[in-house]
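Task 17 of the worksheet. Students: predict the tertiary structure of the chain below and write it out as structure tokens. Keep your answer in the requested format; marks are given for formatting as well as content.
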Amino acid sequence: MLIGGPAALASIPDGAVDLVVSEAVLEHVRREDIAPLLQQLRRVTAPDGVGLHFIDFQDHLGGGLQHLRFSDAFWASPLVGRAGVYVNRLGLSAMVGRFRRAGFSVAVPEAVVWEKRPRGPAKPHPEAMRPAADDLVARAAIEVRLSGAER
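Model answer:
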């Protein structure tokens, strides 16, 4: 197990990792740290390596979508940081897009989807807006591999 964000990956040689697994982690990575983290994961992933990321998109404290009520400033506040409950509020489509921009091919082999939008604000905070379809995804597994040219 390795913790510490992108800087912790710096000591790992290029292409040395066959399998990267995260569970209920990526939703807690600060938005500004996701791109550097994914770039480092791409760098250390072996040409035939696989990444499996299990992401919980629902509110961890109250269920549903309550975490969409608040501004980015609230989530970036020292109080939230000390409490250890930060969530970036990105939906499935945003996570998939970020992996693709980092040079991965992406599959979503499993998703838990609500039949209707769960509890949460009728109108999320403007900084928490995302595609309506993302609000139906409670959890998903994302499988990533290096894109064809990277292999």
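Marker's comment: The chain has a mean pLDDT of 91. The beta strands are 17-23, 45-56, 104-113, 137-146.
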